Q: What sequence folds into this?
């Protein structure tokens, strides 16, 4: 799934002549994850981060394709220890 998203974002950059913003890349990823829910869902949680003209941005996304812009994020076993 990650390779699919990476290749499509790169393709958009080549076609448009400018890179996607972090928000646009996160929205594209969320849309593809939501589309996959109806066919064969990916059991993945993601943290998407980037720096663009709007400054640093961080997005947390779960396997049901819900996305939220956050200030800090962690998932997995280490998240219990990180956030207490």
A:
């Amino acid at each position: 799934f990650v390779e699919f998203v990476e290749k499509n974002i790169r393709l958009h950059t080549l076609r448009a002549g400018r890179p996607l913003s972090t928000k646009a890349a996160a929205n594209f990823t969320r849309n593809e994850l939501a589309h996959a829910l109806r066919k064969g869902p990916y059991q993945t949680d993601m943290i998407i981060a980037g720096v663009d003209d709007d400054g640093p941005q961080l997005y947390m996304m779960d396997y049901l394709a819900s996305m939220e812009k956050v200030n800090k994020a962690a998932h997995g076993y280490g998240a219990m220890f990180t956030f207490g």
